[in-house]
Amino acid sequence: MPQITRPQVYRVVRELLPKEHFGPAELLGWLADVQARNQRSRRSHQKRRAALGREAPGLPP
Fold first, then answer.
1. Which residues contact 22 (CB under 8 A, 6 or more apart)?
2. pLDDT at 37
3. pLDDT in the model for residue 61
4. Which bin fits 60, alpha (ψ -120 to 50), beta or left (φ > 0)?
5. How many domains does the structure of the chain reveal?
6. Which segments in the chain show pLDDT lower than 50?
7. Is residue 39 included in any domain, yes or no?
8. Alpha-carbon distance 10 to 8, whole Å?
9. Cα–Cα dist 43/31, whole Å
10. Range of the domain at 28
């Protein structure tokens, strides 16, 4: 048998691992958390760029 590729390993592992099932409340909580983290990250990057004197055009505050 030839060596298995990385995408093939990923597919096999993904299919073998148990899958999580989320309800509406869990999905909304997850979505709110991801959006909050993305906003914090965006502000942090903007702050760093401003400190370096490089403004990113077109990004909301």
1. 30
2. 97
3. 53
4. beta
5. 1
6. none
7. yes
8. 5
9. 18
10. 21-52
